[in-house]
């Protein structure tokens, strides 16, 4: 079962009985904590007593995917970004083991915001490569807390991926829900611009200026989209444990098409009801709960919206089940309305260096990247488009009959009626700010995907259409 951990109203009912004191609670037995990689969370705690909980966390430095064609050397807690999710109970005595893998190059430590003690454990866990440190703390305060590396330079260690969440359940536990998930937003400061291919180094100047190239959920662009989308069924109660690793920006967390029934803001026990967007500061968290009333794809975003559509802060919750038109009908009418005319707009131009594709395989790879970042929002991940608004490019008679039409639509824009697969569309597509190489790659990708008939477009073909003018 997928799990997204968010702070919800459950914590207001989570304060222990009047006679429960987490500081003096009897420790019964011993167990090893089950830690999980995002977006999963460990199962709810069923025991009714405090215990000695042993948590093992290994630091691993490794090159990982940041976006399609882009990699970054991540410093991780547990081998992924964000780090493994920790779940404990109020009153537990937590024995924390930090292991720094022998192949790592740097010392690391951990500051858990759930700790009452100097440095949140950072002073006790300064760990050289090939070494292990241990310290113990009592979980005194229920809530959802961030943890992160606090080795100097602290900002750089956090920016390279060293953060995660620890949940301290109240003594009574949390209310039962159908799905829980772990979601964490963060920024990456790379020397190369967004989408620039290859291994990207960390850029300290951009970090100091708080100007990230990437703002993402769970460590990379598209980490929870497509086949990796989190899921639920219609009528489910969903709980998201949401954190913000920062290191700089505040998140305006929002799920498009949903209203949060409950928000435990800042990860504590205060609850807001019926919330559209909740602020999560760097180094902070929230628990959000909502019911999925209608099936469909719900998009998780940072509503500082350019971060979502231009820097990567997008994820998908895919909800299955039967429609409920009493709640939502879907589109009931579509017709032309252009009181100010239908002129083709133009995307502003900018200079970029694009690698040349030498083979069809490279064209397909580079073209998929362009499609994902430029075309997918309108024509959908599977190429089906949006009925009545954006025509399908999947199994498209319009494109298969004359691939030059696709090139023309990208470089010249398109307005007026067209017929695709027997359906009429009358809209406006703006000219795209793409090089000849990019247009050739994305058109080739489309022609060889989505059940289309194949073909290959060259930059020379694109230049020909630019000079020739729009193709009918």
Automatic annotation (TrEMBL):
Organism superkingdom: Bacteria
EC numbers listed for it are: 1.7.2.1
The UniProt entry, under CDD domains, shows:
CuRO_1_CuNIR (cd11020), CuRO_2_CuNIR (cd04208)
Question: Which Pfam families does the record match to this protein?
Answer: Cu-oxidase_3 (PF07732), Cytochrom_C (PF00034)
List the InterPro entries hit by this protein, alphabetically: Cu-oxidase-like_N, Cupredoxin, Cyt_c-like_dom, Cyt_c-like_dom_sf, Cytochrome_c-type_DH, NO2-reductase_Cu
| Catalytic reaction equation(s) | nitric oxide + Fe(III)-[cytochrome c] + H2O = Fe(II)-[cytochrome c] + nitrite + 2 H(+)
Q: Which residues form the Cytochrome c domain?
A: 362-450
Similarity annotation: Belongs to the multicopper oxidase family.
Q: How does it assemble?
A: Homotrimer.
Q: What is this protein called?
A: Copper-containing nitrite reductase
The root-end lineage is: Bacteria, Pseudomonadati, Balneolota, Balneolia, Balneolales
């Amino acid at each position: 079962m997928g799990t997204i951990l968010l702070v919800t109203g459950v914590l207001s009912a989570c304060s222990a009985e009047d006679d429960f004191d987490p500081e003096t609670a009897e420790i019964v037995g011993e167990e090893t904590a089950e830690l999980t990689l995002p977006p999963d969370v460990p199962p709810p705690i069923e025991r009714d007593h405090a215990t000695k909980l042993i948590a093992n966390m290994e630091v691993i430095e490794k090159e990982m995917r940041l976006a399609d064609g882009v990699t970054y050397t991540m410093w991780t807690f547990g081998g992924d970004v964000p780090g493994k999710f920790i779940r404990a109970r109020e009153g537990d005595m937590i024995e924390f083991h930090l292991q720094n893998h022998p192949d790592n190059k740097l010392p690391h430590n951990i500051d858990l915001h759930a700790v009452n003690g100097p440095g949140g454990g950072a002073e006790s866990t300064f760990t050289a490569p090939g070494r292990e440190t241990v310290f113990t703390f009592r979980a005194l305060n229920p809530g959802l807390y961030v943890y992160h590396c606090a080795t100097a330079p602290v900002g750089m260690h956090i920016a390279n991926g060293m953060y995660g969440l620890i949940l301290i359940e109240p003594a009574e536990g949390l209310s039962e829900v159908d799905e829980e998930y772990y979601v964490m937003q963060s920024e990456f400061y790379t020397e190369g611009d967004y989408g620039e291919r290859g291994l990207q180094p960390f850029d300290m100047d951009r970090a100091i200026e708080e100007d990230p190239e990437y703002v993402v959920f769970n460590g990379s662009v598209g980490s929870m989209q497509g086949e990796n989308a989190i899921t639920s069924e219609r009528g489910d109660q969903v709980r998201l444990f949401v954190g913000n690793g920062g290191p700089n920006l505040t998140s305006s967390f929002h799920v498009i098409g949903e209203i949060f029934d409950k928000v435990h803001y800042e990860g504590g026990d205060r609850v807001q009801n019926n919330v559209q967007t909740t602020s999560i500061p760097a180094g902070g968290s929230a628990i959000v709960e909502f019911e999925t009333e209608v099936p469909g794809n719900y998009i998780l975003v940072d509503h500082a919206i350019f971060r979502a559509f231009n820097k990567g802060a997008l994820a998908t919750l895919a909800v299955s089940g039967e429609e409920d038109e009493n709640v939502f009908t879907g589109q009931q009418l579509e017709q032309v309305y252009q009181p100010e005319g239908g002129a083709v707009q133009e995307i502003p131009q900018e200079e970029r260096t694009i690698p040349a594709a030498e083979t069809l395989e490279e064209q397909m790879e580079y073209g998929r990247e362009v499609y994902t970042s430029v075309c997918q929002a309108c024509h959908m991940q599977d190429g089906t488009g949006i009925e009545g608004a954006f025509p399908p490019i999947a199994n498209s008679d319009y494109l298969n009959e004359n691939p030059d039409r696709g090139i023309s639509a990208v470089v010249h824009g398109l307005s007026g009626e067209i017929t695709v697969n027997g359906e009429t569309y009358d809209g406006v597509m703006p000219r795209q700010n793409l090089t000849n190489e990019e247009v050739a790659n994305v058109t080739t990708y489309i022609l060889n995907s989505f059940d289309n008939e194949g073909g290959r477009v060259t930059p020379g073909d694109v230049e020909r259409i630019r000079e020739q003018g729009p193709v009918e």
